[in-house]
Design goal:
Two copies of one chain form a homodimer. Chain A has two domains: 142 residues, Rossmann fold, CATH 3.40.50.1000; 78 residues, DNA polymerase, domain 1, CATH 1.10.150.240. Helices cover 49% and strands 11% of the residues of chain A. Chain A contains nine helices and six strands. A six-stranded parallel beta sheet of chain A has the order 3-2-1-4-5-6, sandwiched between helices. Chain A is elongated, with a radius of gyration of 19 Å.
């Protein structure tokens, strides 16, 4: 078997994530309904998040700070205290949100773990990602967990090498073309895109359909069959 | 040489950290001077931080959120917008703060890296710790960087093992008895305490002076000589 090591994204590949951010954003729209149209608010929030990304990175705490900053901008620096209180509460609820594997994930990983070393590769807040993995009950199926600040080709090369795989022996699966697919392919590994119904605007990118090491899969159930085709 | 691998804490061992938090806390006292006595404010902030620690973990973003929450509590939920704006600005400044190695650190690490595998072992925000290491210019001296959500005996055992060292071949050095010394000793490694003038209340603990694998050092300059005494 050529492939020895399978990297798996976590958020929106193994469990819901973007949905929880969107629900919080909906709540924020409601909170700010007297102050800003939803589309104005969404644009402003996206701009604040983009501006803060290099400093805050990915995750709930940075998102919570960006919500507060957006509320400040939209109220000329004088938001109602209830808005701040509700944003803080929403952030805490996101961090404490129950984690449930997406349909099919547990069975698929149990099968895949028989044949491959599974490595969880995820961005986000270190503590929160560890907590989500623990809460998911999937931790035992993984050989290793790699929480990283950015997913680029060098990140994948380093992780696969650390786990004893040449790029050609490794595959990555995830919902983000930008973070899970393109840089893994660039590192020389195989990559399978498993879409999630929602994608954060920052993660949008076009699927590299011409690449022979790339596959577009409907669900995680198709991953084992695809890996076997690699040889 | 018995010791092959030397773990080093980062914040307040290699560069200032607590000082920057204290300066922000001083600024927060000034901001809230009309609202709360400094000692009341400090107590309230400490309580909020303690309550949030399990959810936020360590680092600037969680601290910033705790400052906002403290301001909310001390103003019956209606803080002045300028207070929130200033807390957000302070958090960003902490994240963008220049990093300069503490006196003697660069020379000591350059020497130690000749004889030992140096592994940076630190808590905090993943992205921010990576950025601080890059900004410090010390990155090249380390064999590996391990950013962890909690420093307990299992963490040290796992990290030393990953880098090929039995506990008895590993030593840890840092400024926190609670995080750097006691759990490393518990894991069976050697440990050297290098105090920093300030210690966060949460990190306070008594030095294990009776332990033969423990040393209290005045500065990082003394680390190489102590490691040689281990044999």
């Amino acid at each position: 078997m050529r492939i020895t090591t399978l990297g798996l994204d976590a958020d929106d590949t193994l469990w819901h994530n973007e949905t929880i951010f969107r629900l919080t954003q909906d709540r924020f729209r409601g909170l700010m309904a007297d102050v800003a149209d939803p589309s104005v608010l969404d644009d402003r929030l996206a701009a604040v998040e983009r501006r803060n990304l290099a400093l805050y990175g990915y995750g709930v705490k940075g998102f919570t700070l960006s919500l507060i900053e957006t509320a400040m901008e939209l109220t000329a620096g004088q938001p109602d205290g209830r808005v701040i209180a509700d944003i803080l509460a929403a952030g805490r609820e996101m961090l404490a949100h129950p984690v449930e594997p997406l349909p099919g994930v547990e069975a698929a990983l149990a099968e895949l773990s028989q044949d491959y070393r599974l490595v969880l590769i995820t961005k986000g807040d270190l503590l929160h990602q560890e907590q989500k993995l623990a809460a998911s009950g999937l931790g035992e199926l993984f050989t290793a967990v790699e929480i990283v600040s950015e997913k680029d080709a060098a990140t994948y090369a380093r992780i696969f090498s650390r786990h004893g795989a040449e790029p050609g022996q490794a595959a990555m699966a995830g919902n983000s073309v930008r973070s899970d697919i393109l840089p893994a392919l660039e590192a020389g590994a195989y990559a399978a895109h498993i879409p999630y119904p929602l994608t954060w605007a920052h993660e949008m990118a076009e699927a590299p359909c011409g690449n022979p090491r790339f596959a577009e899969l409907a669900t995680i159930d198709d991953l084992a069959a695809w890996l076997r085709t690699i040889g």
